[in-house]
Amino acid sequence: SVLSDDAIERILEDMEEGDGQSIWEKLSTSDPADLTNYLSREHPQTVAVVLSRIRPEASAKLMGRFEQDFAEEVIMRLSNVSSLGSAVMDAVKTSIEGDFLRGARSRKSKRKPDEVIGSIFNFLGSDKRGELMSGLEAKAPDLALAVQRKMFTFNDIPARVDRASVSMIVREVDNELLIKALVFAQKNSVDSMEYILGNISRRLGDQIREQMETASMPNSREGEDSQFQVVSVIRKMADRGVIELRMPEEDDDLGAD
């Protein structure tokens, strides 16, 4: 039988801890290596429940460490985290009451599967994201399309950010962080680099290019982290209403002056 949402909610709410900190918050700050080893032994549905509730950046770190087949199975399970059979729910409860998930109050996530998966994919490295997206497209093309519409990565800047907003973003992002992101973009996102540099004043663009010439190429971890942080700034600006992000399906001519 399938447990109702209310039943799932009661199981999660039965567990409390004196400091009031959510178990999912505790998991979000746990050591990724230890947590990966722990979850890799669990049922993929159990892992999907956990990943749907912790911070997306923490979920991404775990997803990047899982074996490919296991990660793809978890992604598919994320599309249906609320329809849990009693056996699977027992596994979830056991995990929650274990070393990592012992006792705290939590509320069941209300986000849609495409939002959960999209949030996780936003924080994955480009190689791992590409591998998992390919698997998702093969197994669930409609879900893959919905996920793509929820995602926003550094590569999406030309399609999602209008020209007039680029200068505001450049002023908002820390200069050292921006330089590192743009230098790494020469390796993984040339279109985004050129779009940013091509939509600011020529004087500022020349200054940034000069700084890029003397900067060293960051390693993959540092480079992608810097791009994640730039995207985070853009998202926060959009949340505040300072800029507006285009939807991926819009066909506006971004190249028009």
* Uncertain parts: 1-19, 99-109, 250-257
Q: How many DSSP helices?
A: 16
Question: Proportion of β residues?
Answer: under 5%
Total strand count, please?
0
Helical amount among residues, as a percent range? 55-70%
Biggest pleated-sheet summary: none
By helix and strand content, what is the structural category? mainly alpha
Mean pLDDT rating: 78
Which oligomeric form is depicted? single chain
How big is the Rg?
A: 20 Å
Distance between the termini: 59 Å
Topology pattern, helix = H, strand = E? HHHHHHHHHHHHHHHH
Coarse morphology: globular
Brief summary:
With 257 residues, the chain is mainly α. The protein has helices spanning 5-13, 23-28, 32-39, 44-53, 56-65, 68-78, 86-96, 113-122, 126-139, 141-150, 157-160, 163-172, 175-188, 190-197, 202-214, 220-239. It is globular, with a radius of gyration of 20 Å.
Provide tags for this entry.
65% helix; 257 residues; disordered N terminus; mainly alpha; disordered C terminus
Q: What do these coordinates show?
A:
Helix 4 (44-53) crosses helix 6 (68-78), helix 9 packs antiparallel against helix 10 (141-150) and helix 13 crosses helix 16. This protein has helices at residues 5-13, 23-28, 32-39, 44-53, 56-65, 68-78, 86-96, 113-122, 126-139, 141-150, 157-160, 163-172, 175-188, 190-197, 202-214, 220-239. 65% of the residues lie in helices and 0% in strands. With 257 residues, the protein is mainly α. The radius of gyration is 20 Å and the shape is globular. The chain has 16 helices and no strands. Mean pLDDT is 78; it is low at 1-19, 99-109 and 250-257.
